[in-house]
UniProtKB/TrEMBL annotation:
PROSITE patterns to which the protein is assigned, alphabetical: HTH_RPIR
GO-annotated molecular function: carbohydrate derivative binding; DNA binding; DNA-binding transcription factor activity
Superkingdom of source: Bacteria
InterPro entries: Homeodomain-like_sf, HTH_RpiR, RpiR-like, SIS_dom_sf, WH-like_DNA-bd_sf
Domain HTH rpiR-type: 9-83
Gene Ontology biological-process annotations: carbohydrate derivative metabolic process
Protein name: HTH rpiR-type domain-containing protein
């Protein structure tokens, strides 16, 4: 359900950030209204549902980061027999919640301090930092942005996927990209963000729960801060990791400017 969730977040973000209710606003709204049928739609069918020309649909898809409607449709994966409106994650009991969170915190505590300090040093030295947060972890990405700002480091953190993609186009080797992808769904070949990350300049850090993503050679550093089966507590885990990073960043700043 991860790819579908990301599409929903993208469309909702477009609606939430639209200053005017123009044709693209209504396309986004119509796509959301038909989200459980998108996978079976042809370009002509979706154009008819949105009451616009097929070329207008393709232009909108490109605007939100997809090559065309076919690329958007292929990004949606709804397994047979799955109800779109069922809970994506099983509700955790208090005991299981604490167990999973403690396991993740233990993983964070076992990250070598040299790795943490190398990343902190990179954050400190980078001229420009773009933070990429996806799906439900966009809020945590903005929390990292706020924490770094309070210590004098202004970062970029847009909630719109297509604006995040645009931000990667004009980076330099002096810049840094911090990508938060807990399960790695957004890093599949269906999403254009992957191609942009490959070609973008700057140091690239990935924060994830997936051990499978270590094979991705596009990242200079990867922080695995939890177990993939503990994704239900990812929001709290990320906040703890950010506390660790910010504490080291503060220490680094004090030692360098005192």
């Amino acid at each position: 359900m991860g790819k579908l969730e990301q599409l929903i977040y993208t469309l909702l973000a477009y609606i939430n950030n639209s200053l005017n209710k123009d044709i693209n606003y209504y396309i986004a709204k119509s796509l959301l209204e038909h989200i459980n049928r998108i996978e079976s739609f042809s370009l002509d069918t979706v154009a008819e549902a949105c009451n616009v020309a097929p070329s207008t649909i393709n232009r909108f898809c490109k605007r939100i980061g997809f090559k065309n409607f076919s690329n958007l449709r292929n990004s949606v994966s709804i397994p047979m027999g799955v109800n779109l409106y069922e809970k994506a994650e099983t509700e955790l009991s208090t005991q299981m919640f604490l167990k999973q969170l403690n396991e993740n915190i233990e993983m964070i505590e076992n990250i070598p301090i040299l790795n943490i300090d190398r990343i902190v040093n990179q954050i400190h030295q980078s001229r420009r930092i773009v933070i990429l947060g996806f799906e439900k972890n966009q809020i945590q990405a903005m929390e990292l942005q706020k924490k770094l700002f309070l210590f004098g480091k202004l970062c970029e953190c847009d909630t719109n996927l297509f604006k995040q993609i645009d931000a990667l186009s004009d980076l330099s080797d002096e810049d840094m990209i911090i990508t938060i992808s807990i399960q790695g769904n957004i890093l599949s070949y269906h999403f254009p963000i992957m191609e942009k990350l490959k070609t973008a300049k700057g140091k690239k850090l990935l924060i994830t729960f997936s051990s499978d993503l270590y094979k991705l050679e596009i990242f200079h550093d990867i922080l695995q801060c939890g177990k993939i089966e503990n994704s239900g507590v990812s929001s709290f885990t990320l906040l703890r990791l950010f506390d660790v990073l910010i504490d080291r960043y503060h220490r680094f700043s004090v030692s360098n400017f005192s």
